[in-house]
Write a structure and sequence with these properties.
Radius of gyration: 16 Å
Order of helices and strands: EHEEHEHEE
Strand order of the largest sheet: 1-2-3-6-4-5
Shape: globular
CATH topology: 60s Ribosomal Protein L30, Chain: A
CATH architecture: 2-Layer Sandwich
Number of helices: 3
Strand content: 25-35%
CATH superfamily: RutC-like
Number of domains: 1
């Protein structure tokens, strides 16, 4: 049996060990991020009852995790947003799109409404996949 090499990282949150997961796993040139939520560096929820503040903090946490692999938000190729209130989420995503992505939203994106997230105060969780380098264009060879 061939085993793949998994390079994992966390943010030092108490629930990482409690639940038993990594914030991200890199396999080859692909980084798989677990759903990121709106906690600060101490694990406190940021923006209770404010979808846009929570979304901005979740993206800030995505940036922190990606930076551990030398990646940025520009490396994200796919995202899934899990939200508790769809209308507020659409408005929040539109409001923070340019700040988060610098006006270049070149990624596949899915948004799904859910009844509840891991902590009752959470309104958004963002899971994404990033690519460190692209595959070579074989047509150019």
């Amino acid at each position: 049996m061939i085993r793949i090499h998994k390079d994992t990282t966390g943010l030092g949150m108490p629930w990482e060990a409690e639940y038993g997961y990594a914030q991200a796993v890199r396999v080859g040139n692909t980084i798989y991020l677990a759903g990121q939520v709106s906690h600060d560096e101490n694990g406190s929820i940021v923006g209770v009852s404010d979808m846009e503040k929570q979304m901005r903090q979740a993206y800030a946490n995505i940036r922190k995790v990606l930076a551990r692999y030398g990646a940025t938000i520009d490396n994200v190729v796919e995202e899934t947003l899990f939200v508790t209130r769809m209308d507020e989420a659409f408005a929040a995503r539109a409001a923070c799109r340019d700040d988060v992505f610098g006006g270049h939203t070149e990624l596949a994106s899915t948004i799904v409404q859910v009844e509840r997230l891991a902590f009752p105060e959470l309104m958004v969780e963002i899971k994404c996949t990033a690519q460190l380098t692209s595959e070579p264009d074989l047509r150019a060879i």
